[in-house]
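Homework-ish question, so no full write-ups if that breaks the rules, but can someone show me the predicted structure for this set?
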Amino acid sequence: MSFQKGSRDYGDTKVISISRPTLQRLPMYHRALERSLAEGLKVISSSELGRRSGIDEYQVRKDLSSFYGGGKPGLGYDVLDLIEVIEELLGMNNLNEAILAGAGRLGSAIASYPGFERFGLKIVAMFDKDPEKVSRHIGQVLVLDVSKMPNLIQRLGVKMGIIATPADAAQEVADTMVRAGIEAIWNFAPVNLRVSEDVFVRQEDLASGLATLAHHLTNKARSRKCSTASSSEA
Amino acid sequence: MSFQKGSRDYGDTKVISISRPTLQRLPMYHRALERSLAEGLKVISSSELGRRSGIDEYQVRKDLSSFYGGGKPGLGYDVLDLIEVIEELLGMNNLNEAILAGAGRLGSAIASYPGFERFGLKIVAMFDKDPEKVSRHIGQVLVLDVSKMPNLIQRLGVKMGIIATPADAAQEVADTMVRAGIEAIWNFAPVNLRVSEDVFVRQEDLASGLATLAHHLTNKARSRKCSTASSSEA
DNA sequence: TAGATTGTTAATCGATTAACAATC
DNA sequence: TAGATTGTTAATCGATTAACAATC
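A: Not a homework solution, just the prediction itself:
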């Protein structure tokens, strides 16, 4: 694997730092690369990768250059090598263990979302307070009573917590998680969690997504009425 | 409701234009405001709203000023009025009809996600190609055979399509939707859709979310090993 | 009026887009 | 070698942060 020259972790030296936007595009590159590999491509240019991932070719080169130094001028990037580096960066090779709070529909969907396995995510247990749900399996995952959560987090040393509870339970669950040692929370409940500084929270706010779409449709209708052009977006 | 002065739609004059980041923060403000209202607050300052929504007070004022002109220097914003304006902007008062392709776990979770109703989203039908799933109800929504999709989209004039199919079916479903008249697609399948310019696509890429978290945890562990400080984020 | 807080203007920061010299 | 394509530097754009004069 050709990481960028000089950006490897020599003892106590620096760690590659990737910007948030770049990081979020990595899964798209990964997908496009896998497809390319499946089609038999060994080498790919930034423009072709851009076309396949729907991202600007300038952007592609800029992004890749922030963590990859293996591109060959005149030729392009080695598909397989690039895939490996991205997988390393995304932690797809490490096993990312997580616990999931909330065994309702959303929780169940997350627990059995097929895209996650390939990204190294392993949900080791689910929690719910509803006795109806406790002791059942969802997919491969056993649902436990929420009172067992702190103990299990500590015993297994799990660092990632996923919250898929109703809104009014989310903050309390987050507090419990953090107290037990969770360092990163993926929150699907529509609540702005308040946690201590050193806990990373990713708010997966479906309402925001919906807001964007709804606003777009409303605006489109409005601007059409005013006989103006419509805007677009990929 | 006090929209910003001069930004209303006078015949053919301009439409309020809100930046994407601002738009995505509106649901957070909305939530914080609802909570404030429930607690009996009639008026709220930008700093208090910031505290409650987890957003910088500078940001709050900047955001609000782009669409709201009703703030009173020395006092703050009228909670109820602000809520109403945001609801209007997010189309929470209009009914947003949508059709949903894919009646698997993810599709089912979306169809019955409680947060959506309040945002005016109404899923009028679901589609699947699995005969096992067709003709059943998921929540309130009837699942139909995917062959009936184009006709139904046209008959009801639905403009929003939600894709929750497996990855390999997503592009074909999107094409069908667009041909039938869908103007905005909310895509939960891990595929970069290719659609015509005037169709709005929101890619709800759960893999991106996971990438952010996994990278953060990996990096945190690595930087701890090197005895350096850890970074954080809200 | 005096104190508080807005709305707006200016400064900073970071990401995207573009262009091009280096190089396979 | 000539042609293609990278990696990087420069230019542009837009968002966030800060500061402050206007005003309730």
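Now go work out the reasoning yourself. Hint: The first helix of chain B runs from residue 20 to 38.
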